[in-house]
Design brief:
A five-stranded mixed sheet has the order 1-2-3-4-5, sandwiched between helices. It has about 280 residues and is α/β, with parallel strands linked by helices. The chain is elongated and about 140 Å long. It has helices spanning about 1-30, 30-45, 90-95, 100-120, 140-150, 155-160, 170-250, and strands at about 55-60, 70, 80, 135-140, 165-170.
């Protein structure tokens, strides 16, 4: 039983080694790294609560090129994001000894600086009124950014000194940036909803006023009809009823005259213009 367990452990270790080897080989491919970076970027914007085609656009074509994503800000501003930072030298450095690793990490930091320069040369958003003057270079590996900063102490300042400014962002920092933008969009939607509520309330009030004006008009007509009815009853009692009684007595009719009553109820109407 112990032999079998040891053999299973050996097999599992071999399988893990093979998987790591395949992953390492795959990440050496710039195409694979780029695709993985784009997938990580998409996942982060979804986690940040942003909505596709409203808060951000993927692979949007601009006059200066096609960034992997453009984030839209509530004030109309935009932030291009590039997810194709090089990390080939970093992955190679992980498999080398100390001296060789130092050289590869230096090459990795240089590749990061070169990518910053390339992004700056594309002039994303320069001359565009909606531009914030900031371009995000997304690196989906926290340790790769840390290693580059360790080798090149001025890398962050170098990026921010460019025009437009290039901000190197890891998944954590990018999430914080996007969450801030998403919060701004939430506030915009809340304000829009409040504005819609105010407009609906104003519309409702105006329609209530119109409706009540119609009701008061009906009440006035009812009151006028009641007054006319009472005048008719008074005229009947004063002028017609005595004559009708004499005719009844002369003809000995068995039918009694009806006794119409005045209307005591009147609708209570507000003062004109008071609603």
């Amino acid at each position: 039983s112990l032999d079998r367990n040891i053999q299973n452990l050996i097999n599992a270790q071999q399988s893990l080694d093979e998987t790591n080897t395949r992953l390492s080989q795959a990440m050496r491919s710039s195409t694979a790294r780029g695709r993985w970076g784009e997938l990580q970027l998409r996942r982060i914007v979804e986690l940040a609560g942003m909505e596709d085609h409203i808060d951000f656009d993927e692979q949007a074509v601009t006059d200066q090129g096609r960034p992997d994503m453009i984030v839209h800000l509530p004030n109309g501003g935009t932030i291009p994001i590039d997810a194709k930072a090089s990390a080939a030298a970093y992955f190679e450095a992980l498999e080398l000894d100390a001296d060789a690793r130092k050289a590869k990490l230096a090459a990795h930091a240089k590749a990061m600086r070169d990518r910053i320069r390339q992004l700056a040369s594309r002039q994303y958003g320069v001359g565009d009124r909606s531009s914030t003057g900031l371009v995000v270079m997304f690196v989906p590996i926290e340790s790769a950014v840390s290693a580059a900063y360790e080798e090149d102490k001025d890398l962050l300042e170098y990026g921010l000194s460019q025009k437009p400014r290039i901000l190197t962002a890891t998944p954590i920092t990018l999430y914080a940036l996007l969450r801030t933008a998403a919060f701004g969009w939430d506030q915009v939607r809340i304000a829009e909803n409040m504005h819609a509520v105010v407009e609906d309330s104003q519309t409702l009030y105006e329609r209530l006023v119109t409706f009540l004006e119609h009701v008061w008009s009906i009440g006035k007509h009812l009151k006028g009809a009641a007054d006319d009815y009472d005048e008719a009853v008074a005229s009947w009692k004063k002028r017609l009823e005595p004559v009708a009684k004499r005719v009844k007595d002369q003809t000995a009719s068995a039918k009694e005259l009806p006794e119409p009553e005045t209307i005591d109820f009147r609708p209570t109407l507000p003062l004109d213009g008071a609603l």
